[in-house]
Records
---
Amino acid sequence: MRWWLPDAGSTFAGPIDGLFTAILIITGIALVLVEVGLVTFVIRYRGRPGRKAFYTHGSTRAEVIWTAIPAVTMVALGLISNHYWVLIKDKKSVPPNAYRLGVHAKQFEWQVTYPGPDEKLGTSDDFTVRNQLHVIVNQPTAVELTSEDVIHSFFVPEWRLKQDAVPGMQITAWFEATKTGEFELGCAELCGMGHYRMRARVFVHTPDEYKAWVAQQAAGGTE
Amino acid sequence: MTSVAHAQPHAHGGGDAHHAPMSFWRKYIFSTDHKIIGIQFLFVSLFFLLVGGILAMQIRWQLGFPAKPMPGGGLLPETMVSDGHILPEYYVQLVSMHGTFMVFFAIMPLLVGVYANFLIPLKIGAHDMAFPRINMWSFWAALLAGLIMTASFFVPNGPIRSGWTNYVPLAARPDLSGVTVGQMLWCISIVVLGLSSVMGSLNYITTIINHRAPGMTWFRMPLSVWALFITAILGVLALPVLQGAAIMLLFDNVLGTHFFDPAAGGQALLWQHLFWFFGHPEVYILILPAMGMVSDIIANGSRKPIFGYHSMVFAIIGIAFLGWIVWGHHMFMSGMNPTLGSTFMVSTLLIAVPSAVKVFNWMGTMWRGNLRFHVPMMNAIGFVSMFTIGGLSGIYMAATPVDIPLHDTQFIVAHIHYVLFGGSLFALFAAMTYWYPKMFGKMMSERLGKVHFWLTFVFYNMTFFPMHIIGMGGQMRRIYDPTIYNFLKPQQPLNEFISYSAFALFAVQFLFAFNFLWSLKFGKKAPQNPWDDNGLEWSLPNPAPHGNWEKVPNVYRGPYEFSAPEAGDKDYLPQYTKLPTDRDPVPAPVPAGH
């Protein structure tokens, strides 16, 4: 049982987890302030006979302070967040050297199209594998997400990557895996009764391993 | 006490009924009395709250114990349960209908149907709503909508399977969702419910603008009325958008149009824009009235004027305004242009500001008060502490990069329940207890109320707090069986813990139900002003008669003059009490047509 985000598996995890921690600290302080304040007031100002409450309608100074502090914090948080948001999701941020894969989602499976030995998508040596995503470690990878039928969502928790696949749209999502091993790809958008079992195995290979796997696939082998 | 300086003209037909005895049917069923209509809404929406709760228990059974047959599962038909095991298609229907019932038929009518109806005329000093008959139709339309929605459980293929949000093309294509009649019933029910909401909202807006008692200026209105007023404006603008979208969805299902089906030239994201353009203001429809009523109750329980009344009003307006320009935050991962995501992130983060202002002002109200811990006050403090968690957890998802791993996981489920259960429902427990004597002339049991509050508070947190952790671990929403994922398996004990807590949380709600029903007959008779409050409603007997006042009282001050020096020995000073120094207000001009 983990009490935190899953182990980091891509370059996005660094900034996202950092930002998560920063928000945890900010909201943690706010939460403690409010809850401790409430408990203190409940104990300290509990009703006693013969006492009268302090008659006041408020304080402009207090209002200004507790409007300004959240406002400044939120704007700052927005600016910092936006920097990373653009880096992750903006079309122009996809590295030009990214290795391109096609991922086609349909009820209830993931069809991954690989560029084959010529490393170019859309040529005759492309091949498609159901429910297996093989990628190369430390290699920027861009998936061209499409959907056959309804909206699905491409989600690999370790990579901190989620992107809906929408019928009628082609959406590019990129990432750079930093850890080899086996992971899981799940669907994060309700796509019908089989939503829960729309699962693919994810393999992050060293370049050599990947080449061997591609060669094997090209030769008609399985896995 | 009530000084009457002038004769208030009869507002409308409702006033005539003062003296005439009425048959049971006229009085309780086809009633045009805003208080009876409020009570009708109360019973109906409490019933749907129970329905939503029963659906939630089945969801929790499946998530906690996915391999085990559900107790009592044998009672359900083969299309839902097989050998006692919940089927995947039924599970998806459970989550879809839990959301639908809770949002549209429990929380929204409890807050708006019940308390806008019941409180607005009583708190502003009106004989009734501006349009009592439209008000009656608003209730009957809501009930009809609820019955249509319930009927979808009994049609072939059952109710919707696309979540309460009905994302398309899933919801638009029976061949992909497997739902036929159920989807049509959902759309029709929502259109009817929208009619009910629009009729209600227009009534609330008109009544507040035109029927305030002499002296009840805008800034002497209780915050509950302010919140209900702004909520009504949201309702009248938001619901028609959903109705339009639901009609398009209905056409896609029935007439073969393709508004939402990209395979035939439609747009999948169009639905999301329409739905959330309604849906986000809807979220504020579900929380603003709660904030308003909690403000009234916290001032009362603290025996102090509300801290920063004007900021509180502007915060309500600010939240409502920002609520219109944040819908895109539901769509950060949808494939919408990421640059739009940046815009929606900023507007969303800014909503934290008026929300924080409200929390600090509630605390400011309690500061140096002389707190009375009656049951409404306890639930109101529970509201503040839990809404704070729900508000703060929203920041994680507003910050777009952090939203990437959290979007569509149990983290958002935790967030929405901290706002709608920890927020709205605690406020409703407070409000139901607080205005119970005004509704029924009886007091609810204080002791049972306290036991219910503490047990609910504890089990509620045990149920929903761990969902944050589960969501951080990556558990997607609406999945039937988390244990088929290796990365989710280690979390299963926590899922079981959540389920046990949820069962306990559900069970203790029967304390409230018992207290509510038992007190109707056996409750202590309510004194006229049981909470020593300042509101106009307490100048009336409990329960108040049809038409409320013979002559509406004059209003001499704001609603929160607790512990005012001129109150003398008492620590409250009602709005209708005339002190020797007070001058009578100039009566409001009579609206045209009367």
---
Amino acid sequence: MEERPKGHFVFGWKIIAYLFLAGVGGGASSIGAAFHLLRPEAEIVILGGVILGAPLVFIGSFLLLFDLGRPQVAFRAFLRPNKAWISRGTFILTIYIILGAIQFGFWIWPFQGLENYPSLHLILNIINGIFGILTVIYTGLLFDTTRSIPFWSTPILPLLFLVSGISTGIFGLILILFLSGGTESQVVSLLSQFDAFLLIFEGMILFFYLHGMHEVTAARASVRRLLRGDLATPFWVGVVIIGLFIPFVLEVFWRDGTIPILIASLCGLVGGIYVRYIVVSGAVKAPLNAEGVLIYLSPRPE
Amino acid sequence: MMPRYGMVIDLKKCIGCETCTVACRAEHATSKGILFNRVFKFEVGKYPYSKLGFLPVACMHCGKPECEKQCPTGATTRRKDGIVIVDTEKCMGCQYCVVTCPYGTRYYLDEIKNYIKGSETPYEKKGRKKHRRGAVEKCDFCIKRVEKGQEPACVTSCIANARHFGDLDDPHSEVNKLIALRRGYTLNPELGTEPSVYYLPDY
């Protein structure tokens, strides 16, 4: 049997991929909804939000479904929204995907007609954007309420997921803009400027998150793993350099070039995966506390 | 009146022999890799002023179970008699309760494994009916034995008589007397889970 270090709990790749896809999808559709409200002339961004949003979250939800031990009773996940964050999340995901599917189906493909009702479309898109944000932060709230894992049990985590989600959503939108060939440089530079600001913000959140967690005795083990332990390479290279530093430098100093912005977007998306990876894999369960004697939970027995 | 079942484990008497672990496996026929009851062994203090400590840990049957709070399907419930159970028929196997349990006493059964590879004993064949692949399982205070008026397997089998089982709501019960006399404590009280399993200090 695979030996795990004491007290570690590791989610599979499906959960990490879901967290990333939900971040990109929810972030992109909330940015799309914001553009719909504030700058409706940039139709391509609104379109991009709809194209990226629900489909990515839909793929992510399928990953969640296949991660279940008994997917045949998955409908039961709807049953306890009064207490469990997973149930609330199931509702959020379902409503979000339905709203996205309505927009996609009646605006892009296979039907059209939603553009004839601009105010209805705007309202639909704004609700969709709100549910996109909820999609991004509910997992953070789920982790926040997990008291057995001190590294997760902080309200900074939903904020980190939100900022990282919107940032990766913008990177996804920029990629969509390039792929569709409609490189309206004004929109791209607006997006990348906003994103550069978000990256600073994300870096600060990460700093305060790790700083705050280092003060909590039980979470210090997680922070040590990130800073100089087994997760040091994913953290310093994946999150800090690829996810934050490179995109920021490219967006600030080479924002007029096509290739630098493209590289910045790809790096930012990879960084988004690594943010989820370090948060999920850095989890260490709090030790058993028998009147001051601390016992770390050992790996599974034979 | 409905009792509220609880357990008291006397760490002064526990010698770390793991009879409870084996008795539990014999009772529930758990798969390889799954032990509802475990005994942690650790060193307290620094040599030469040190000693070996034992801590048997199974489900704490919390008054405010974290697992029940996070369970999206309603498979995990706390009965009126204080026993926290998993209805594997309802469990969808999201495993979040395994993550959220502070005591690490929940197990996800991804496949039913025999203890000796390739050969299934008649006992394992009989016992596997109690388990459901893809669901989460854990200690249930031997609910079938308790309903018959017996004590859980780990309590009956304990060779040092370190485990006691009884009603926490009855002020005259043996468990309550022991908790009061020996200043019984629960694990991780800071989490507010209100466990029904108490430990008596080893001094």
